[in-house]
């Protein structure tokens, strides 16, 4: 019996072909979309331009500086207490030693009274000890005088008795007794002298120790009195009282800051600089500033290399005769180069901060089209920035801000 052969369907092959074609089309479409440039239209009046051209450039950076006193003295509480009276107002001119704030501290005053009583008791004890030592010295000296008087008397009696014993008027025993007592008194005198020397050595040491103890107690008492006197805060120097935040009735702990006093007619400028320039700025570099309508040429007097929030600080000393006010802000230009040098340069503008200095938009005047161009910029001044790569002489660059269109590759400018 013949077997019937069924014809295979060609539909799967057609489906596979369609899938391949669709995949290829999607891949081409995505690639073309990826390669397509983002375009944007803007009115020509909304942008500003500058021409790339050779110009003399002296690298500098623009800084914002603040006028601060060159020397200030802080007012810190030595002994804590309650603010009883505020004697001056913030911003006043004060003389050295002038009272500023009166504090009260009952515990400190009671401690002073207790120490005074202790010191008085100790000093009385020391004086009694000194008196006892002096009495012993005088008694010992009196003993020496008695023994010497006894020896002199025995010596005289012995000289008088010797002829009488020889003639038989006095017995030999009497002469022997006088001789023995004389030897005894001489030995006693020698021992007394030795004791006197020892007592004198000990007495000198004790008197020295007692004097040191009295001096130490007196110093302790002076410290206690000084602590109470410190409750009246006085001005350590003459100057203007600034940041004087004190209110009557508040309690202040030891070490808390009441304010500060600024010395007059001695000011400085303090400016914050990006840490990028930390290795390039040196002492003595020149800065130009206009203060009180007077152009000044200053030098870097101090570099604080501590980096805080990606910035470090510079200081410039102002002339003494210049009248300035604390907290005043000024603009200054710090010169990083000693002299000017010709370079291919472009005028500064907002595009530097918006684009980070990595790209610019180059304008084609014939087509009124601006294209995004990668660049490498170098040194900068207050007006110019050096062009190292990416641009040629004569190129016209948009120097206004890029914030609204920095994602676009091509900008079509319209009149």
Keywords:
415 residues; alpha+beta; six-stranded mixed sheet; six-stranded antiparallel barrel; 4 helices; 24 strands; 36% helix; 33% strand; rod-shaped
Please specify the SSE layout and strand pairing.
Elements lengths: L10 H25 L3 E5 L5 E3 L1 E5 L2 E10 L2 E5 L4 E6 L6 E2 L4 E6 L1 H62 L4 H58 L2 E3 L4 E4 L8 E2 L4 E6 L4 E8 L11 E6 L2 E15 L2 E7 L11 E7 L5 E7 L3 H5 L3 E6 L4 E6 L1 E5 L3 E6 L6 E3 L11 E5 L1
Parallel strand pairs: 1-24
Antiparallel strand pairs: 2-23, 3-18, 4-13, 4-17, 5-12, 6-8, 6-11, 7-10, 8-9, 10-12, 13-16, 14-15, 14-17, 15-16, 18-22, 19-20, 19-23, 20-24, 21-22
Helix pairs in contact: 2-3
Folded structure, characterized:
The chain is α+β, with helices and mostly antiparallel strands. 36% of the residues lie in helices and 33% in strands. The protein is built from four helices and 24 strands. A hairpin with a 2-residue loop joins strand 15 (294-308) and strand 16. Helix 2 packs antiparallel against helix 3 (172-229). The relative contact order is 0.20. Residues 29-36 have low confidence and may be disordered. Residues 188-234 form a coiled coil.
Structure summarized in a few sentences:
The two termini are 90 Å apart. By secondary structure, the chain is of the alpha+beta class. Helix 2 packs antiparallel against helix 3.
């Amino acid at each position: 019996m013949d077997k019937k052969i069924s014809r295979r369907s060609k539909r799967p092959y057609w489906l596979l072909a369609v899938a391949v074609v669709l995949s290829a089309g999607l891949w081409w479409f995505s690639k073309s979309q990826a390669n397509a440039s983002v375009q944007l239209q803007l009115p020509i009046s909304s942008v500003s331009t500058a021409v790339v051209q050779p110009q003399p450039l002296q690298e500098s950076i623009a800084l914002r500086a603040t006028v601060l006193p060159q020397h200030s003295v802080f007012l810190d509480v030595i002994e804590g207490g309650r603010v009883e009276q505020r004697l001056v107002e913030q911003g006043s001119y004060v003389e050295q030693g002038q009272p500023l704030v009166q504090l009260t501290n009952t515990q400190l005053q009671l401690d002073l009274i207790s120490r005074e009583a202790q010191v008085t008791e100790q000093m009385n004890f020391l004086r009694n000890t000194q008196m006892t030592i002096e009495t012993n010295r005088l008694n010992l000296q009196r003993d020496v005088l008695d023994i010497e008087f006894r020896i002199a008397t025995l010596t005289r009696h012995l000289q008088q008795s010797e002829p009488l014993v020889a003639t038989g008027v006095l017995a030999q025993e009497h002469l022997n007794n006088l001789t023995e007592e004389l030897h005894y008194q001489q030995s006693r005198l020698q021992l007394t002298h030795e004791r006197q020397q020892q007592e004198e050595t000990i007495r000198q040491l004790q008197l020295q120790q007692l004097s040191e103890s009295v001096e130490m107690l007196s110093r302790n008492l002076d410290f206690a009195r000084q602590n109470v006197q410190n409750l009246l805060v006085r001005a350590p120097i003459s100057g203007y009282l600034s940041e004087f935040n004190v209110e009557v009735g508040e309690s202040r702990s030891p070490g808390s800051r009441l304010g500060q006093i600024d010395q007059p007619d001695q000011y400085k400028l303090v400016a914050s600089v990006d840490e990028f320039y930390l290795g390039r700025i040196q002492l003595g570099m020149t800065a130009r500033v206009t203060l009180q309508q007077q152009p000044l040429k200053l030098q870097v007097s101090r570099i604080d290399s501590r980096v805080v929030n990606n910035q470090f600080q510079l200081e410039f000393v102002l002339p003494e005769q210049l009248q300035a006010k604390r907290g005043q802000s000024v603009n200054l230009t710090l010169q990083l180069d000693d002299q000017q040098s010709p370079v291919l340069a472009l005028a500064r503008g907002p595009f530097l901060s918006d684009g980070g200095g990595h790209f610019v938009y180059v304008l084609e005047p014939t087509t009124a089209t601006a294209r995004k161009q990668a660049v490498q910029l170098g040194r900068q001044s207050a007006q110019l920035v050096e062009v190292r790569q990416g641009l040629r002489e004569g190129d016209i660059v948009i120097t206004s801000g890029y914030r609204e269109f920095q994602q676009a590759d091509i900008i079509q400018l319209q009149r």
